[in-house]
DNA sequence: CTGTTAGCGCCTTCAG
DNA sequence: CTGAAGGCGCTAACAG
């Protein structure tokens, strides 16, 4: 690779000093002679000069780059929210570096360190909750950071997330209204106290109670995705199996669908199914899937906006740290007992 | 944000010079006294020092970062291949910056420029074919770059892609073997001469010919995704509609499934369906979908490996520039006329 | 075995 | 209105 040309080359060609070129690059034309300006412009064009942002970053101590660390990129939620974040960042001339921690705290730690070493201006993370010490340090340093989807107690860090209890309540109520009575919920493991899972189960319990329905512990499955197939089998093997299932997220949904498919269980009729988190194929699935959708786009946008404001020191100190978003029920056929016809 | 500590602080604390610390950081312990070494180690721990990679990059003229530009992140192919690339990069201590050009040449150009300004060490791109001038310049500069999925003629740039004609041939043959005769193919627009689409259509034609079947132009739909719904409708409105469809990719698949669902067309029985590119829900779809899968993981791995070798100047000049991969047929029920039972 | 020195490419006072 | 000088944090000879 041939050596890149620098500001010095431009200066020489335009017969001005480096600093004048620098001023030009930074849009400070105020006191610049029009002829100087055009000479520089011409030189840049002819040499096809591209500023070196690494050098600029070193000097300015800001990189116009933020890091995004998601716990698990396999969730559609992650990719959707990332796209929304990128959108607003891009509009503001900010680049993003995306990292997938794979639900591994060690990996998360390494990513945080790497990103800090890269001098990112801020961080958005779906935290795995384990690296509290690091987060605390960042807070102490007043480093711009925003959490997404998951709460970490005791840390004054802005967090954008779903109103998960409401999501469950919507799901339960909808199922009851449609004649289902024995409602089960299936989520991934809660041993790490992951916010959405815990809250969705809590919301589920509360909703059952307020409908005067009993809470049946056998109907609650929260386990690692690799064992969930077995867990689902247990539910359906109960003396009195549920007549409806709430799927905690898109990954659990796949396991449920796999099971019902393999066992010829007819969704809607044999068992009602509603899933939290919209999925790409919900409309073309047979039957189409009723979902409780998160406003992922809005949430991503809000998260990015909060972070950018922090970076620019435009923080309103009045605000609370927790930003909850309301889910939306999208009714389709998987919660209709009488296989509704299309439209 | 408090000011970060630098190599100078460590040097002072450890009572050595900056260069000694630098040597330590770069693992050149060879001539270093063991006591010096431990003193430095201690200082780093105590100060919680993190090297500034921006400064290092400026000096070393290498950033240990590569850029990935995909034409359209909505394809599952993109995300899968990105994950494979990240995998091998991560193992080699290389970071990745992912950009989605959204099938927009202008956006692609800006991303290339931004990434170069960021001094990335190399580029992997799914090219939109329009910015040939930029690519040529990069080639002239001997800048490390690898293309993925799409060919750009006349440029000596390594390209990793599917053997698309074979993919179509496999699809056609499989359909014929299963008793289908009037085979249609549906892809996104080919006005830009996008390699996979063009090749898949060519392969389709050739396969029909070698099976002694006529090529029916009405059965070939290649149009923008936004109009594809209409195109599909046209196919099914023909006097003699096809009895099987080859879907060109995952996005076209969604359109097809939407149409068949809305029109109560039974897949397998009313119309056979096979899609090129594996999709997440192929197994749990009803009926499960027969696909022609790309070895995305391998392809991503190969792409990254080629690029890293280029970056490290370990290039074998003997190689050809085009690396073709064989697709795999995954037979499921969407190509079975007699609704096969599970298992 | 360790320190001195001289930049990497850019930005930013501060003189002129 | 423009230029000279210093330095961001780190690395890499080259002395010692």
From TrEMBL, chains A, B:
Lineage top rank: taxon: Bacteria
GO molecular function: DNA-binding transcription factor activity; transcription cis-regulatory region binding
Classification via CDD domains: HTH_LacI, PBP1_EndR-like
HTH lacI-type domain sequence ranges: 5-60
The keyword Manganese belongs to this UniProt entry's keyword annotation: no
Keyword Repressor listed: yes
Assigned keywords, A-Z: DNA-binding, Repressor, Transcription, Transcription regulation
InterPro entries linked to this entry: HTH_LacI, Lambda_DNA-bd_dom_sf, Peripla_BP/Lac1_sug-bd_dom, Peripla_BP_I
Gene3D superfamilies, A to Z: 3.40.50.2300, lambda repressor-like DNA-binding domains
Protein name: Substrate-binding domain-containing protein
Organism from which the protein derives: Terrihalobacillus insolitus
């Amino acid at each position: 690779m041939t050596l890149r040309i620098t500001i010095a080359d431009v200066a020489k060609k335009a017969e001005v000093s480096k600093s004048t070129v620098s001023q030009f690059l930074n849009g400070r034309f105020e006191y610049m002679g029009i002829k100087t300006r055009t000479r520089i412009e011409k030189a840049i064009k002819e040499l096809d000069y591209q500023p070196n942002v690494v050098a600029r970053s070193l000097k300015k101590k800001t990189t116009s780059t933020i890091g995004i660390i998601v716990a698990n990129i396999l969730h559609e939620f992650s990719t959707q929210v990332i796209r929304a974040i990128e959108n607003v960042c891009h509009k503001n001339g900010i680049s993003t570096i995306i990292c997938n921690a794979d639900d591994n705290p060690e990996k998360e730690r390494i990513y945080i360190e790497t990103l800090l070493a890269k001098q990112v201006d801020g961080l958005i993370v779906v935290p795995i909750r384990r690296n509290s010490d690091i987060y605390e340090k960042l807070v102490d340093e007043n480093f711009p950071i925003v959490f997404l989807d998951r709460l970490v107690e005791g840390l004054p860090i802005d967090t954008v997330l779903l109103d998960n209890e409401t999501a469950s309540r919507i799901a339960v109520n909808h199922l009851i209204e449609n004649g289902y009575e024995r409602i089960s919920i299936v989520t991934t493991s809660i041993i790490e106290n992951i916010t959405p899972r815990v809250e969705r189960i809590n919301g589920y319990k509360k909703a059952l109670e307020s409908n005067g329905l009993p809470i049946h512990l056998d109907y609650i499955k929260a386990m690692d995705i690799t064992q969930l197939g077995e867990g689902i089998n247990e539910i359906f093997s109960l003396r009195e199996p549920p007549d409806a299932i709430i799927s905690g997220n898109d990954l659990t949904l796949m396991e449920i669908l796999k099971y019902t498919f393999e066992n010829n269980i007819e969704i809607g009729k044999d068992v009602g199914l509603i899933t939290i988190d919209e999925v790409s194929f919900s409309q073309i699935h047979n039957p189409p899937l009723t979902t409780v959708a998160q406003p992922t786009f809005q949430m991503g946008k809000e998260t990015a906006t909060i972070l950018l404001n922090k970076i620019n020191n435009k923080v309103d100190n009045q605000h609370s740290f927790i930003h909850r978003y309301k889910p939306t029920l999208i009714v389709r056929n998987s919660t209709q007992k009488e296989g509704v016809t299309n439209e």
